[in-house]
Amino acid sequence: MKKILGLFIFLFIGNVVVAQQVRFGFKGGLNVATLAKIKNVEPKMAFHFGAMTEFQINDALYVQPELLFSVQGVEKIEKNGLDNSVRLSYLTIPFMAKYYLRGGLCVEAGPYVAFNISANQGKEDYQKDLSEDINGLDYGAGIGLNYILPNTLSFGVRYNVGMTEVFNGKQKGSRNEVLQVSIGWFL
Question: Which residues form the domain of 97?
Answer without folding.
Answer: 25-186
